[in-house]
Amino acid sequence: MTRSARRTRRTLQVAGAGAAALLALSACSSSDSDSDTAGSDPSASASPKLSGTVTVFAAASLQGSFETLGKQFEKEHPGTKVTFSFGGSDTLAANITGGAPADVFAAASPKTMAIVTDKGDAAGAPATFVRNQLEIATLPGNPDKVASLKDLTAPGLKVVLCDKTVPCGAAAQKALDASKLKLTPVSYEQDVKAALNKVVLKEADAAVVYKTDVQAAGDKVEGVEFPESATAINDYPITLLKNAPNAAAAKAFIALVQSADGQKVLTSAGFLKP
C-alpha cells in the first residue's frame, strides 16, 4: 500500500470516529433533555388530581360511618365533594336501575346488590367490605324485660320490624323462621333508621335492627343480643356503577372504604370485618 493510500485510509477512520462520537453525544443530549422534561412535568408520573362530586348511594345503616369517611375523603382530596343518598337498599337499587345518577352503591345485602348487577348497572364485581348483625333495641332501661327474640311475641308488646324487602327485615325474618317464631309487628318500616326511630320516639317498645344502629343511638335505646342473630348476618357489598359521572374519584372513595383507615372507622361503629 502506498504512503498516500495509507494517509487516506487513516483520514477516513478519524472522520468515522468523530461522526460516531457526535452521534453518541447527540443521543445522550436528547436522552438528558427527555429526562429533564419528564422530571419537570409531574403529570408524567403522578396520578391525575381528583376533583368534582362523588355521589354515593348507601344503606341507611352506613350513614354515620360513611359521613365520617366522606369528610376524610374531602380532606385528603381538596376540590372533591362527597354527597350521599341513604335509605333502604332495595329502594336505592331501584333508583339506580331507574336511571338515577350515582357513582357508588353500597348495599346491606348481596340480594339487593343483585338488583343492580342483574341489570348490568355495576362496573365489575361488587366486593364485600363489612358485615352486620342484628340486635333488639328496647326502650332505655328495658322496662318490658325483653331478654330474647321469643319475648318479642308477648301480647301487648309493640314491636317494629323493617320491611321484608329491606335487608334488615329479611334478616329478622330469617332469624324468626330459624326460631320457629311468628311475630306480627305494629309496623314495617322502609329502612333500619326508621325502625329504630320508632323506639327512640317511644312509639314502639322494641325493634329488631342492627348492632351498629343500637350503638349509634347511645343511651336513647338499650340493646339486647340474641343468639339467633348469628344465623342472619348480612354481608355488605360495594361497587362502582357502570355510568358513574365521576369514576376516578368514585374508585378512590371505594379504596378508602376498603383501606385499613376505612375499616377502622367501620369496625369502631360496630360493623364486623368481611
UniProtKB/TrEMBL annotation:
Top-level taxonomic group: Bacteria
The organism's taxonomic lineage, starting at the top: Bacteria, Bacillati, Actinomycetota, Actinomycetes, Kitasatosporales
PROSITE patterns linked to this entry: PROKAR_LIPOPROTEIN (PS51257)
UniProt-recorded name of the protein: Molybdate ABC transporter substrate-binding protein
Secretion signal span: 1-26
Keywords: Metal-binding, Signal
Compositional bias annotation for Low complexity: 29-47
Region (Disordered): 29-49
SUPFAM superfamilies (UniProt xref): Periplasmic binding protein-like II
The UniProt record lists the keyword Metal-binding: yes
Entries under Gene3D superfamilies matching the protein: Periplasmic binding protein-like II
Stated family: Belongs to the bacterial solute-binding protein ModA family.
Record InterPro entries: ModA, ModA/WtpA
Keyword Membrane in record: no
